[in-house]
Fold Putative alpha-1,2-mannosidase.
Amino acid sequence: MKLNIPILSVLIMLVGCSSQIKTTTNTSTSLKYTQFVDPFIGTDGHGHTFPGATVPFGMVQLSPDTGIEGWDWCSGYHASDSSVMGFSHTHLSGTGGGDYGDILLMPTVGEIKTEPGTKANPDEGYRSRFDKAEEKASAGYYSVNLKDYGIQAELTSTTRVGVHRYTFPKSDDAHIILDLKHGISDSPRDTWFEVTSENEIVGLRKSSGWARDQYVYFVAQFSKPFASVAGDREGELLENVKKLEGEKGVKAVLNFNTEENEPIVVKVAISAVSVDGARKNLNAEVTDFDFDRVQKEAERTWNTMLSKIETEGGSKEQNTVFYTALYHSMIAPNVYMDVDHQYRGMDQKIHTATGFTNHTLFSLWDTFRSTHPLFTLVAPEQNNDFIKSMIAKYEQYGQLPIWELSANETGTMIGFHSVPVIVDAFLKGQTNFDPEIAYEAIVAAAEDEDRGLYWFNKEGFIPREKESNSVSKQVEYAYDMWCVAQMAKALGKTEDFEKYSKRATYYKNLFDAETGFIRSKDMYGVWAKDFDPMAISLLGAGDYTEGNAWHYNFFAPQDVNGLMALHGGDEKFAKLIDEMFLQEAVNDNHMAHDVTGLIGQYAQGNEPSHHVIYLYNFAGQPWKTQERIRQVMNEMYTAERDGLSGNEDCGQMSAWYVYSAMGFYPVNPANGEYIIGSPIFPKVTIHMDNGNDFVIEAPKTSDEAIYIQSAKLNGENHPMTMITHEQIEKGGILSFDMATAKSDWGTALEARPTSFAILPSEADQITDDEPYIFRPYVTNESLIFNAETTVELKNVIDGVEIFYTLDGSTPTTNSTTYTNPFEVTSSTLVKAIAVDTDGNTSAVADFDFKNAYYNTGDTFPSLSINYKKHPSYYSGTNGLIDGVYASDNLRDGKWDGISGQNFEAIVDLGDAKSVSNISIGFLENTGSWVFLPKEVIFSVSEDGENFTEVGRTGTDMPNNHPRINVRRFAQATAEGTNARYIKVEAVPYMKLPAWHPGAGNNTWMFTDEIVIEE
């Protein structure tokens, strides 16, 4: 199918918000790009998209909810369902976590039901069955027939207003349920509604979920007056209600008398600020009840945005997949500001945006890779708003967003990927923001000591026992540091440029030449045991984030040439990528849902693999890129409901396809270069906001003709297998000659793209040759022993000397030289250093050996506790007395998590024994809601009934996030103390403090080994 589309020059202008769009030149009104948009793509499988109505970057996403719990219902809808529980106004697009689903409406007839009922038996509640064949969805529109009620439901929206049209049968018992309890995987904390006129109801749903503290105020107006209004609070139905409130979620029943085929139109405006803000939004965006007008305007808005990229040729399916992908890439981030520019900030205060439109929902671990770079091509003004929103969040919260949702930092995923988004726009000259404030913000992110950065910045690597997902964080932090370095260089900050350039090479510090993989080691430099490159670990546990060693072995987009050198050069590097595709396509962990779309161990369904295919170009084998890119586009993207191989992830899965279908991809999302793949359309035109058009021509391309034979840029030979953003912005024509056989185009050394974290010309100036000396380590499996133990000191570096002390003093080269293992028979603090032949010294290693009682599988010591073990934070039956310390990593499996209550543990030694000291460990990780206890109390007893307190220790509540650490609380006993029972109690700071983003919620205590010394 050939699309004869006129050349367009479209300039997107912001009028109060990023999705109120007008064109500055005449455009074709005959072509509807929206005809190729199918919002149902991604609603089956694990795509997690929603089919409902929204506009580009809109604050409202009005969509049906078929389920609100479970991984495949993160968006509230899944194609496997056959009943719907209503239509709510906020939804996440393609995420791996659930939230939103605020302000649900459900039209019904007959008996009043205020609970939704179940999928197994919809008749239990207000749910209705539906037939998927009767569903319709397009850009800005959704409709479905509610079979149980004979009601046709239709949805459309503006930026801040959702508009419903419910066509009822004749009934004296017609209702519209307003359910403020309803939400997707969250819990209401404060809800209320008030009937303010014969056809208006207003209110608030405040909830806690992924967004810990979310406010959604609303004003809903109906085209027909209410016959009466009832209310429901915790299952009690109240007649003739004007106002109702309740923490756990109140509901309104709006009653009507309807004629046959009578439509009732409902317009619902939302605001995170106030009811007054919602009313202003309503008055500004929808002044009447003309559903069709709003729908047409939504379609026009989408058509304007989609027209930024014009395809010619290609099959209907290719165009459907392409324009639906472009549509999905423009759903988020969402406007998060009222028409008067007021918005709720990260400090939960109300702010007024000046000179930008505030946005929320920054899924940056996903979208920094290609979604935001795509915005620099087709939505640069909106992208600037996104960046200004990030900077405002930094000014309010002291941190750039990591994964921000409704003015709440969720801390989800890894890296500090606001940085490449900011730096990319800055280096492309799209700088409608203060670069000095932006630089201050990105440096603050790079110097934040949380999330493993303390170790990364100080030691050059993240030890596996100090931070979960240490390898994934290591490689992604290195990339982000490169981005900071590039902005420092552009701003003339030479010292910073050198410092952050060095850090950009730190990914190498976890490269194991023996296995050929980037993998984890501990703080002593010892590689993890039993390494399996195919073993998958989850977010928050293990060495990798939603992946394995194969997925992260190729992530150094800032230094691809350096990465190739580690692997032995371009031939070996290309062969290793080949091997990735030839591995067995298995996911060894059924919980790692995101590792999907497998070709061998390449996983298109999750982000870490997205750039890998394009790395063949750097190795001089671009025909392999062309082969594999076509394979992925053909196999992993279809026009069916399950047409996405993994979570859509707020546009990233789709942006990958948009780029790849056009024929290139930003391997390094911030260097302004695009690596060439294999274009699927005979012609693509990018209409840029500067008035220039960039055309990609491949007239011979087909499913068989996938190989590039030659290329020309503006009529001149183009041997390079990459193109720059600057070349695209100037406009012109990039043409490809395609054929069915591979060619030697792009194989020459001078034709290959290059990528150096430190340019060869700058290596002498920047390279740090100072060697790193690892700390000595002990071979003991545990530092807790009974009676005696042998201490053996080692170092991973050959030829170093080890010096140690046993009296707690800091060792020097004048201390005892280690030659042979030695015995300790009492609690002893061993400190050691390693020194190389040039006098370079390691940091001090300390090993606090304890002569103590612990459970070895025998009857005693035994443990009793006053709390129920949490399934995710559980160290085992006797985990607190098993002789093994937990690490700084809260998910290492050795911690017990307790929330909402005091902690009490009693250890029974079996008979009275000598006790000299009692200690217990607690984790402090306030960003994850884990606080030290307010007080720890130690007691002893001979009979288990009458306890004598031997001491207590208190803490002060911090006024900000301290660095993650483990603190051991210890209490010496009086000389000669004998006891059979040892009791340890801990009193928590029950609620998160006012300065914390989750203020008001319960804290957690994470507790570790109880050590009872002889």
Summary: The chain has a mean pLDDT of 94. Residues 470-490 form the longest helix (21 residues). The two ends are 83 Å apart (CA to CA). Residues 454-531 form a domain with the Glycosyl hydrolase family fold fold (CATH 1.20.1610.10).
